[in-house]
Amino acid sequence: MRALLRQSGLLLALALLPAVGQALYLRDKVSWQSPIPASEMVAIADARGWGTNAIWIDARPEAEFAQKHVPGAILLNEDRWNELLPQMLAAWSPEKRVVVYCGSESCGSSREVARRLRKEAQIKDVFVLEGGWEAWLAGEKK
Amino acid sequence: MNLPTKALFGALFLCTATLAQAQLAWEKTELELNPAIGADSAVATFKYENKGTKPVNIKAVRTSCGCTTAALKKNDVAPGEKGEIEATLKIGDRTGLQQKTVTVETDDPEHPQTILTLKANIAQILELQPALVFWQANEEPKPKTILAKAGKGVTIKNLEVTSSTPEFTAKVEPGSNAGEFRILVQPRETSHQAAANLTIKPDSSAGTKVFTASARVMPPATAAQ
């Protein structure tokens, strides 16, 4: 019985080895950033449903915005935050929701822009678009 | 040697064999930078060496955002050869801790992908709280305050604030602590919609950066909020 327990323990330890190795060796490939709370994210269908009650903010670089963007979206990124913020604030009103997007799900600029809008401009209803611009494009192709 | 011992040695052998085949070795895969206040960019240099016996081809280098570029001098790395990838973060108006990644793809089957992380602590010259003040239509046109605070290590002697329209006035008063200022913004009236950009120029040791805030009187339709 003892031998069985010992062997089981050893096998369990061996099974854990790859997991420990992966956690140590691939630690840079794992996203350790805390995810955005679900309440601060919005799916495309929901955001579209807000209609004119939503302001769309494009947090991508200006060149990408110039190529194509969500119709009516306003450019606001951290490259020229001080210069671009006033035009966004001029379009905002308290009853409007703000939807921020960047290139894809993995880009972080929409999160940063959303965070700064909440903190610096003290705007409450700011959401990050799930999937970003890539998801918007995919939705257009359907 | 019993079965579990053999299994343990087998696992250790496999781990050792894998490590022995590693080729492109990175001096550091994470770099933390503290760029000077007012700097335009932060540059991180990731150094590597091919410690294997075969050449390594760097197939692609991708950055996590448009604000970061990565420069690679050559794609083929001979055994024993050293090189570097220079990642440049354009600071722009970014503040606080910025974390960007550079993904390096090689033809090394053991390590086809390496993620390099650039962290930059970007000092804030001036913090405005809030960057927007607004009045509902027909609200009493009392002054509202924007608190301006100098960032850590930044000395601001004075602030110059100008409004883009005479519909709003802006007055600067010293705050309760050193490096703090109170910007009192007041609309002339709130019976009609109005908006102003407030240009804020700090008299600072940290350069000539200009900041903006906004003031608005909302249209009557939004006053029901």
Describe the structure.
The complex is a heterodimer of chains A (142) and B (225). By secondary structure, chain A is an alpha/beta fold. In chain A, 48% of the residues lie in helices and 13% in strands. Chain A has a five-stranded parallel β-sheet with strand order 1-5-4-2-3. The longest helix of chain A is centred in the N-terminal third of the chain and has 24 residues, at 2-25. Chain A is elongated, with a radius of gyration of 22 Å. Chain B has 225 residues and is mainly beta. Helix content of chain B is 8%, strand content 52%. Chain B has a five-stranded mixed β-sheet, with no helix packed on it. Chain B is elongated. The model of chain B has no long low-confidence stretch (mean pLDDT 89). Classes of the chains: A alpha/beta (142), B mainly beta (225). The interface between A and B is large, with 40 and 42 residues.
Low-confidence stretches of chain B: none
What is the terminal separation of chain A in angstroms? Answer: 61 Å
Number of helices of chain A: 6
Overall geometry of chain A comes to elongated
The helicity of chain B comes to under 10%
H/E element sequence of chain B: HEEEEEEEEEEEEEEEEE
Calculate the mean pLDDT score of chain B and round it.
Answer: 89
**Radius of gyration of chain A, in angstroms, nearest whole number:** 22 Å
* Proportion of residues in β-strands of chain A: 5-15%
Strand arrangement, major sheet of chain A: 1-5-4-2-3
The most extensive contact between chains is: A-B, 40 and 42 residues
Q: Low-confidence spans of chain A: pLDDT under 50, at least 5 residues? A: 26-33
Structural class of chain A: alpha/beta
Largest sheet of chain B: 5 strands, mixed
